[in-house]
Amino acid sequence: MTDVRDLLDRVSAPDGDGRPIHDPATGEVIGNAPEATVAELDAAIARARAAQPAWEALGHEARSAALNAAADAVDARAEELARLLSREQGKPLNGPNARFEVGACSAWLRTNAALRLEPEVLVDDGETHAELHYRAVGVVGAIGPWNWPLMIAVWQLAPALRMGNTVVVKPSEYTPLSVLALVDVLNEALPADALIAVSGGRDVGARLASHPDIDKVMFTGSTATGRRIIESSAGNLARLTLELGGNDAGIVLPGTDATAIAQDLFWGAFINTGQTCAALKRLYVHDSVYDEVVEALAEVAKATPMGNGLDEDNVLGPLQNRQQFDIVNRLVEDAKTHGARIVTGGSPATELGELFYPITLVADIADGVALVDEEQFGPALPIIRYTDVEDAIASANRLDVGLGGSVWGPDRDEARRIAARIESGTVWINSHGGVHPMIPFGGVKGSGYGVEFGVEGLKAVAVPRVING
Ligand code: TXE
């Protein structure tokens, strides 16, 4: 079995120092994360600032080559990274989980290496010749969450490095070791101080966002923290890309074949055991197919194994932390008091471990109940019956978030017409949550602003410069 000891030795705090990090499946301590002080963060930002001009001066070709070499380094360590991620985050090795996440890191690095952002000729009419060029912003602060800690770190750092920025990464305090290990591996291929990871608590995150020498903040996390980062940007004028929470709705139209969509619906909702920003979090199903859809989802749930992520059979894991476990438990208990019907699950799976909660399908529930209105970010899905599609569209749009959404049905044109009326950054048809390194991704309303991925993602970590004349 691949050992993660070497990676842990490279990044852990010395014995007796740092913060213990627990495996959410077993409660075991897997290592100690260094806890940087604000002064240490300041020193890291100064180093990143000093390294930036030379990194930008290398030019696009050389930076692309470095990103490809960094992807090679990730591939060479992929199994170790996946195992460390599984132990720290809880997600299984198999399924759309740890090995998949490490693979996505490499794919995003390579795609960013291959992207081209050429100068645009704006006006060329004989009198005026104006071109738009893109330059690096400077030093980018990348602040990440605990659900997809490696993939989201790469979403932030790959385009930033590609454009010639240097980057200071602050991982979530729940999953620092795997991100520190990833950055250490990436740094096998990058020049000194182009990419620095600083592990610490919320004070370190707050300082990174408000630091006068930070030019851009890439943030994925809660809406509450996003608001704080917006406030601090009034001080340092940092540009922001904010990918905040969501409460994605899915609408299943009449005539849909329930068994044909059940697998995709299931994974749209329960990828990473529901701990995914753009997961399906409220499902609106037409009365004519409601019972079949609920039944088909229950069949998939029964056949999908949950447990310790290192067991090759499992594809669902624990909640990553007690805070999130308590949110899911509270929302399901509250739904019960409102008369909702628990189809599968419905109470903690303590036989698997303290932080396990089973796949919980909650039927006969309505808008206004907290499990529908609040982001559960876990393995509990409310399934709401509708009779008029106009009501379903209104329900999808009634909340103050808009990251993703989906429409499921046999008629693609009809589904597309409805999709155009959903207020979210992405609407999928007959699938939910798939992302692609060439397709811009971002939210509207309380889900944040700015997009990641593709050429638009490069522009988001660049500043325009017009050359006129
Ligand atoms: O997020 P936080 P948490 C949602 C999910 C979850 C909730 C809280 O609903 O229940 O957010 O999760 C850093 N300035 N999502 O507590 O607090 C912090 O150290 C700058 C949705 O993990 O937002 C961490 O690195 N940074 C989400 C990061 O911000 C600050 C994924 C995220 O922490 C800071 C995860 C500050 N003032 C949770 N305070 C998604 N969109 O995918 C904290 N941080």
Automatic annotation (TrEMBL):
Active site: 243
Domain Aldehyde dehydrogenase as annotated: residue spans: 20-461
Renumbered residue ranges of the record's region Disordered: 1-29
SUPFAM superfamilies per UniProt: ALDH-like
Domain of life: Bacteria
Record Pfam families: Aldedh
Key words of the record: Oxidoreductase
Molecular function GO labels: oxidoreductase activity, acting on the aldehyde or oxo group of donors, NAD or NADP as acceptor
Signal sequence extent: none
Family: Belongs to the aldehyde dehydrogenase family.
PANTHER family for this protein: ALDEHYDE DEHYDROGENASE-RELATED (PTHR11699)
Protein name stated in the entry: Acyl-CoA reductase-like NAD-dependent aldehyde dehydrogenase
Naturally occurring in which organism (per UniProt): Leifsonia shinshuensis
